[in-house]
Amino acid sequence: MEGSSQSCTAFFFFLDLFIAHNISENCNIFWSGTVSTFLLTLGLFKHNCVINDQIKHDSVRIVKQVKPFSNDREFNEKFSYADNRIKTSKYNIFTFLPINLFEQFQRVANAYFLVLLILQLIPEISSLSWFTTIVPLVLVLAITAIKDATDDFVSSVTSFQPQPRLEVILRNRNNEKWMNVRVGDIIKLENNQFVATNLKVRQALTVTSDLGADIGRLAEFDGNVICEPPNNKLDRFIGTLYWRDNKYPLDNEKMLLRGCVLRNTEWCFGLVIFAGLQTKLMQNCGRTTFKRTSIDKLMNTLVLWIFAFLICMGIILAVGNTIWEVKVGRNFWAYLLWDELLSNAVLSGFLTFWSYIIILNTVVPISLYVSVEVLRLGHSYFINWDRRMYYSKKDTPAEARTTTLNEELGQVEFIFSDKTGTLTQNIMVFNKCSINGNTYGKVLVSQMRVLRSCLLYQKTPCVDFSFNPLRDQKFRFHDSSLVEAIKLEEPLVQEFFRLLALCHTVMPEERSEGELLYQAQSPDEGALVTAARNFGYVFRARTPETITLYEMGQPVTYQLLAILDFNNVRKRMSVVVRNPKGQIKLYSKGADTIIFDRLDPSNEELMYTTSEHLNEFAGEGLRTLALACKDLDEDMFKEWMKKLLSASSILENREEHLGALYEEIEQGMMLLGATAIEDKLQEGVPETIACLTLANIKIWVLTGDKLETAMNIGYSCNMLRDDMNKVFIISGHTMLEVQQELRKAKSHILGISSEKCSNGESGKAQLYNSDSVFEETIIAEYALVINGHSLAHALEADLEKLLLDIACLCKTVICCRVTPLQKAQVVDLVKRHKRAVTLAIGDGANDVSMIKTAHIGVGISGQEGMQAVLASDYSFAQFRFLQRLLLVHGRWSYHRMCNFLCYFFYKNFAFTLVHFWFGFFCGFSAQTVYDQWFITLFNIVYTSLPVLAMGIFDQDVNEQYSLRYPNLYKPGQTNLLFNKRKFFICTLQGICTSSLLFFIPYGAFLSSVRDDGSNISDQQAFAVTIATSLVIVVSVQIGLDTNYWTAVNHFFIWGSLAMYFAIMFAMTSDGLFSIFPNQFPFIGTARNSLSQKSVWLVILLTTVVCIMPMVVYRFLRTDLRPTLSDKVRLMQQATRRQGPQEQNLKRVRRTSSRRSAYAFAHQQGYGELITSGKNMRVANSAQSVPSLDMKENGSGCTESAQKKNGTSFNQER
Predict the structure, then answer these.
(1) Where does it reside (predicted)?
(2) Nearest to 1058 by CA among 1031, 1083, 1036
(3) 3-state SS class at 80
(4) H/E element holding 895?
(5) DSSP 687-721
(6) CA distances, 282 to each of 44, 84, 231, 952 (Å)
(7) How far apart are CA 725 and CA 729, in angstroms?
């Protein structure tokens, strides 16, 4: 409800709040009135009742009656009513340490290193100092804890929005914060305060209208509400108000839900019914779960496998030690002076097992987790810093609100999208029309050329409406012939726009002379009335009995006799008016198929012509309405009105009786024409959907809109096309009907595909019994559209698998009229049965549950508040940015993470397994090859920065080619770059490298001597040679793995090599030995070893032998079996000096034999509300405005068309 200049009295219940009173005349939900009472929902109440877990879709059972008293906190506090506090953070100062440590030790590697640390404290089995384990472990836990605490703090701070103080009407009148509101309070809401409604019909109880705006009387209000327990049914509420020894029924139309914004009125009052977590919005919000990526889960599995491999190596070496002790070692026991206990071969083998578990512990890489967190943080900053995802109009950058899911963005297979505000702008524009067989609004083509298979049009200049002082300055139209027809006073053209100005439920607001603002329940109606306004038929004012127009500057008042309201069955609305000449006219608009069936037979030829025009409009994805009128006989109308009054008082089957009377009078109408409205999509939506589809990403639309509207947007986005083989519409009302429709759809798909296979078109008929495989063999394209009540049955356990099978066989899936909980259930269905990554994207509070349920949640900061953004993992301002988020940042993150993991496991196996080979030559004594400092610093200093640089900056192809070739995204969906097979290949490469690192120096030093003839093969010289070879080999290997070199990569790789030699020479220097003789005993080892030419020759030979097989393999693979990434990279290198070529996915005009969805996103109940007068002031100032003289200023303008910035309305979701 947007602000208005005045307000009026009303009293509401808030269901989450019962609204007490005061709504302005021109509020969008049409609640205002001089003495009216409203029952709305704000979302602020909890009562001490048991929630019935067996609540079904079609009924609500009240488990326990609840009796909150208004304005009586002392009484209500005796019960377990909830306060209005909502916690968004995961930790607090007391729970952070235990909860965070619990989460971290769910990682197997962390738990393993904790056990390892305990083992290292046992002297009998530890051959390494404890600091080699505790330093990395504490570092890992501390860095991860700091990151988690920061993320949770930032999330809770951004989730906390400072709320204005509310005026709580208690007997001691005071102001309270939102969190202090309690059940039973009567509160005052003001314009633009959060509590909002999506412009739905809300009618208050008239019994409270006497309270007026008297704050004192409101403070004394002592009503008692008994209602249903908290539940997630947004469209249902059952309760009763007990007041003054009477009871009054309460339903959903008297409730205002939490999560909306109060607009179009200055203020209103309401009684709190539900609060905090028991409001219907919060009941529809799923629990916040700890999201982990598939790579995280795989890493846990791999760590278990590595641990098993470590156990096997320990057992092998322990058995070797036992055998060696029996055959060889016992000969030396007498000289070692061991205790009798230690002189047991079996016990020695047992202790050796644990010693090798400690020595080989680096095969389980604890530093891996710290490195992964650093990479994810870097990738998140790249998303935040991306200027191409910055929306300058709202000063909104993209934001990675979590740092744990970045690589998952490169593996998305299913996208679940909301419609309104996500795909569309929710802005309707009057585009074209057909009047008496003539079309208007055609864009003349002054130039047409073909560019990349797309037609580009240059539009004619827009029409000049300056002759109309009451025009809407933002309105644009491109056919001046329609203005000329108006000026020539063609009767049917005049009647056409007169209908648009009369047949609606719009409320006008005139803040100043000539400044009109229309408050429309749907943007469709707003667009039609605005069009009539600009063409000279200005809707200026209304009362319950009259409608005032300004027709070409002259005021004309029509008597409003009846409103034949819209509903989903009628698909039309009509008004009966008496013009100043005394003639009674019926004006009707609705779906063309409905209107055509009620036309006079004389309209057959015109109907055929108009139908052709409608097909043309539908081919352009426009929303259409047919318009008709009828002259009524006075006597006949009087008889009909008697029947109408009689039917209106019937209690049973009232709707059926009224519908029959409406049908009776709406026969034999005369066709006037049709309108075509464009539901403006967000910029780049069709191109984004087309690009994501090419990337093998399935997009499902989950919306609260009606079926026709959802399908129309599907066609506009090119998700639905006329060349599809079939669009299945599931609309059964019972489980049996839904089951039959689903089975019929599946039989149709499999049957046609079977025929094609039998004719040799596919050749895979044997795969029909496997739906998961059969999806790949489907040649035809199908779409599935299912509404909310059918989806409720389809999500039952007996039908959910059938629903999923059919949905996955279809190219497009659209679910309409779904609740927030159903959105989450659909996402969960795919998560449970498909091994695929899901992403949910939305912009409103009703998308929160879906966003939380999906693997990845994306929030769009649109016009419906920040609830979706606050619950999301990533956020930005426009749907088109999703393409860049997935195909660029997501793919890069996945590519970088996979290359990082492959390299990390490779280097750790190459580093650690040298000890395994050495065990066979040291009597299995658990002696290490390297000194302890090298073991400690290898992963932390010598090799950490190069792999981080590769993991943060690497690109296989640049961003332009990533967008130009969406197929590059597919490897992530099938985990091709890192999986169990890749892991085994990396570990095998590491094992082979470790064997070469050990045996080549061992063989070379076996009989070699120094230049002076002395022996060169002492243990420390051998260790220095292997360590140096290892550092050089892994540095060369990461150079081969790097596709995109930056200055940082060069600095880290060469800097790490320089750091290794500097530290090695320093640790074997005289200076450190003199200061710490026990810690650095091997003085001069590096200098003596590396001064020998033979040592360098061995290092060079080892490096070449370790690296060359991989170089040859990669060369042959790229040359003989290149991947798409290889091909694109070569293409990129070949065209590096050329400018980037942007992908040009232009929207292609669609031709359609299907009628576009009719432009009437309307709701039943407004006709009765308008005629009752409860939404208006008694006096209307607009009626006193004098007539305006319209002068002709021309019909054309030379300025180019500007972008339409029509008022945005909140449409029902």
Answers:
(1) Membrane
(2) 1031
(3) coil
(4) helix 891-919
(5) HHHHHHHHTT-EEEEE-SS-HHHHHHHHHHTTSS-
(6) 10, 11, 9, 38
(7) 13
In angstroms, how far is CA 700 from the centroid of its own chain? 11
Q: Catalytic site residue 418?
A: yes
Contact present, 108 and 307 (Cβ < 8 Å) = yes
Residue 521's closest CA among 194, 197, 190? 197
pLDDT digits (tens, 9 = 90+) for 461-482: 788 888 888 888 888 888 889 9
The answer to whether 327 is annotated as binding is no
Residues 554 and 1186: their CA atoms lie apart, in Å, by: 9
479 assigned binding-site residue = no
Q: Is the pTM for the entire model greater than 0.85?
A: no
What stretch of H or E contains 400?
A: strand 399-400
* Structure tokens that stand for 299 in this block: 């890493």
Tokens 């709707």 locate to 655
Amino acid at position 526, single letter: G
390: its two tokens: 């910055």
Q: Is 419 annotated as a binding residue?
A: yes
Given the residues 148, 185, 386, 418, the one annotated as active site: 418
DSSP result, 574-629: EEEEE-TTS-EEEEEEE-HHHHHTTB-GGGHHHHHHHHHHHHHHHHTT-EEEEEEE
Q: Are 1089 and 1097 in contact (CB under 8 A)?
A: no
705 is in an annotated binding site: yes
Residue 1150 has pLDDT above 60, yes or no: no
- The dihedrals phi and psi of 312, each to the nearest 5 degrees, come to -60, -45
Q: Tell me if 847 is assigned to a ligand binding site.
A: yes
Q: Would you say 899 is a known binding-site residue?
A: no
Query: 205 is written with which tokens?
Result: 């109880």
DSSP state string for 324-339: HHHHTGGGGHHHHT--
Sorted by sequence, the CB contacts under 8 Å of residue 954 that are 6+ apart come out as 892, 895, 896, 899, 1042, 1043, 1044
How many Cβ atoms from other residues are within 10 Å of residue 152's Cβ?
A: 17
Would you say 359 and 915 are in contact if contact means Cβ atoms under 8 Å apart?
yes
Residue ranges of alpha helices (H) inside 926-975 are 932-937, 944-953, 959-964, 970-973
Band (pLDDT 50/70/90 cuts) for residue 988 is very high
Q: Which residues contact 116 (CB under 8 A, 6 or more apart)?
A: 133, 357, 358, 361
Residue 1070 among known ligand-binding residues: no
- In angstroms, rounded to a whole number, what is the distance separating the alpha carbons of residues 558 and 61? 48
Given a cut of 70, whether residue 259 has pLDDT beyond it is no
Is 817 within any annotated ligand binding site?
yes
- Going by pLDDT thresholds of 50, 70 and 90, the confidence category of residue 21 is very low
Length of the chain equals 1213
Q: What is the mean pLDDT of the chain?
A: 77
Residue 846 assigned to a binding site: yes
Reference 592, options 612, 575, 564, 576; nearest CA is 612
Spell out the residues 6+ positions from residue 662 whose beta carbon is closer than 8 angstroms to its own: 564, 570, 574
How far apart are alpha carbons 403 and 667 in whole angstroms?
63
d(CA 426, CA 689): 18
In whole angstroms, what is the distance from residue 903 CA to residue 951 CA? 10
Beta bridge partners of 167: 175, 188
Half-sphere exposure of 331 (CA within 13 A, CB side): 5
3-state class (DSSP) for residue 68: coil
Q: How far apart are CA 208 and CA 206, in angstroms?
A: 5
Tell me the three state secondary structure of residue 305. Answer: helix
Residue 704 marked as a ligand binder: yes
Q: What is the pLDDT of residues 43-71, one digit of tens each?
A: 332 222 222 222 222 322 333 444 455 55
- 349 and 319 Cβ atoms separated by less than 8 Å: yes
Torsional sign, CA 452, 453, 454, 457: positive
Structure token digits, residue 71: 């304005």
